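[DERIVE STRUCTURE TOKENS]
===
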Amino acid sequence: MRHAIAWSFVMEQRRTEQTVLGHIDRLVKEEHRLEAMAAPADADRARLAEVVIELDQCWDLLRQRRALREFGKDPDGAQVRPPATVEKYTG
């Protein structure tokens, strides 16, 4: 029975990570669509800037979750960081 509980926990963690990855996938598709526009309107350029920031935040959240899990901590302790923090990242 312990195995079933552990497996349930693992599946829940993966589901949460899959949610973040799914959101990243949707944002990347939107980013590509916006970048492909020949003459984007101001609203499209503004949305692209928002998408880029949100992608940075999502990737950061995913890295936090994985690092917490790797070191035996609760991945749900990961927090979405403000744009000013994640925009400074490189790589």
